[in-house]
TrEMBL record:
Keyword Hydrolase: yes
Ranges where the AB hydrolase-1 domain occurs: 7-220
One Pfam family here: Abhydrolase_6
GO molecular function: hydrolase activity
Natural source organism: Streptomyces yanii
SUPFAM superfamilies per the UniProt record, alphabetical: alpha/beta-Hydrolases
UniProt protein name: Alpha/beta fold hydrolase
Amino acid sequence: MAPIKNIVLVHGGFVDGSGWQGVYDHLSADGYQLAVVQNPTLSLAGDIAATRQVLDTLDGPAVLVGHSYGGAVITEAGNHPNVAALAYIAAFAPDKGESVSTLIADPPPGAPVPPILPPQDGFLFLDRARFAAAFAADVPEQQAAFMADSHVPWGVEALEGAVSEPAWQTKPAWYLVATDDRMIPPPAQRAMSERAGATVSETPGSHAVYVSRPAVVAAVIAQAAQGANGQP
């Protein structure tokens, strides 16, 4: 099997693809070819389509990576023939018929509640004053403030989109649990990763671990690329 050199990065809700820059820099320095999907986060179907458009352009197998809601996107888009492995970074990993909405509907007692404001015209926003503490507690203060002030409206339709064919049922998966996450509780991350049969790593980190600890995230993605190729 040819070495896997393609990496496709899919961002989650409230952010855009620019947050992947640190991970991009680490992996490109190691010789990987990267593409960052700028999924609109208006609907799950639309984000899957945007991801598939990128996958269509590849000249070989890829690791498809999703952060947060991006995990729901890659769970369906990962059925694309160019996807050799999945990598979930503090991400949702829905089963058939599940959506982000169903996965967050019944939080465990004592779990932190993300500061999501009531929907406005079909979109969700985070409380900017609480964004840093909830989403990016270990990101430098100025950068976290910028993330809060530039955060992207997240379509309610995207949260409600259900997965029909989970790619992790047929393709190998890796999962990085962020143990200080206050958006997706770490126990929920562990449960989803176990259900998906993923190879699991854990690291201290906020929900924005891909921004705050890019080297750790890049290492997990590289492990996926090597593991899917049969390398130790």
